[in-house]
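TA notes, week 10

Several of you asked for a full example with nothing omitted. So below is the full record: structure tokens for the whole chain, then the designed sequence directly under it. When grading your own attempts, check the secondary structure regions first.
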């Protein structure tokens, strides 16, 4: 067998990331630097470094933004408390929260109003779950581990619903849901899937190619939930090895020893230029043949945030 690369499609940028990154770029063009951004606009080192070079200033909290300045909220979403803090400091805000995260926020608000106990499946400390839980802190409990699912208590087992972070492993989430349903058989499902199309499509592509791969390389940053999940999905579905890398230069040549087929994919926050650099690197090490494995064609796009649209020259 010649050495070859299987290239997953879809991979890389999703519609929410594309919109969030363009929001910062257009804000810099429209209003000039600096543009403050609360948290990483998307979880990718290259994107954050590139935008920083152009004049974006990334901060952890709104109190680091000078009074009256412009701040962009990241794709992962923020809680109402963050909007209030920004208003108190008279900040001008542009909310680049992905509309699919906003959808989960609205579900949390709606079911809290109806006085449900909401079990939010997600990773403790992730910005997205902090934002979603912050919509209804008195009604939401986070379920991260199997232990959490075994311990969580609800007020009325006939009035419980589960929601989830958008970037989880589809399979592992269903394991957690089954575990919860054993304890709360009347628990309701979300009105529509919370794990977004981009997360599940990228996992499906990896599942398809993983059994044929000696090695899977996922381009993505360590704090990118959906990228980390792609490594796990590759290993769970037959790849002999899988690694997460930000850049081609991080590939350890020992990983390529005895390898005939390398699978390549990237997380939803990764620009394709980084994948192209990896393909060039692999070609220089004998992996010149590239076959794209297509499991879905994505056509979703989101309009820019309205706070920005109103100021843009048409
Ligand atoms: S991964 Fe999904 S939820 Fe997150 S920004 Fe992309 S489309 Fe939106």
């Amino acid at each position: 067998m010649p050495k070859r690369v299987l290239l997953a499609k879809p991979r890389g940028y999703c519609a929410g990331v594309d919109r969030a990154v363009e929001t910062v770029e257009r804000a810099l063009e429209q209003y000039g630097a600096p543009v403050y951004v609360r948290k990483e606009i998307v979880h990718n080192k290259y994107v954050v470094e590139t935008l920083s070079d152009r004049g974006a200033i990334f901060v952890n909290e709104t109190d680091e933004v000078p009074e009256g300045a412009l701040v962009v909220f990241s794709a992962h979403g923020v809680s109402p408390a963050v909007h209030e803090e920004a208003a108190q400091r008279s900040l001008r805000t542009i909310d680049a929260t992905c509309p699919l995260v906003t959808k989960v926020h609205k579900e949390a608000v709606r079911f809290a109003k109806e006085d449900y106990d909401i079990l939010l499946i997600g990773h403790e400390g992730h910005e997205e779950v902090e934002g979603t839980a912050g919509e209804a802190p008195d009604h939401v409990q986070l379920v991260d581990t199997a232990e959490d699912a075994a311990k969580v208590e609800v007020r009325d087992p006939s009035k419980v619903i589960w929601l989830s972070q958008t970037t989880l492993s589809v399979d592992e989430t269903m394991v957690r849901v089954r575990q919860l349903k054993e304890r709360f058989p009347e628990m309701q499902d979300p009105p529509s899937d919370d794990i977004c199309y981009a997360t599940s499509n990228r996992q499906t592509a990896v599942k398809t190619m993983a059994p044929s791969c000696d090695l899977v390389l996922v381009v993505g940053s360590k704090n990118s939930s959906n990228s980390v999940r792609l490594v796990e999905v590759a290993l769970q579905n037959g790849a002999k090895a899988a690694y997460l890398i930000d850049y081609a230069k991080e590939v350890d040549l020992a990983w390529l020893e005895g390898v005939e087929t390398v699978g390549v994919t990237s997380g939803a926050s990764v620009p394709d230029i980084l994948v192209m650099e990896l393909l060039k690197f692999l070609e220089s090490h004998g992996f010149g043949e590239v076959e794209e494995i297509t499991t879905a064609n994505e056509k979703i796009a989101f309009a820019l945030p309205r706070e920005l649209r109103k100021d843009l020259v048409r």
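The chain has a mean pLDDT of 97. Use that as a sanity check on your answer.
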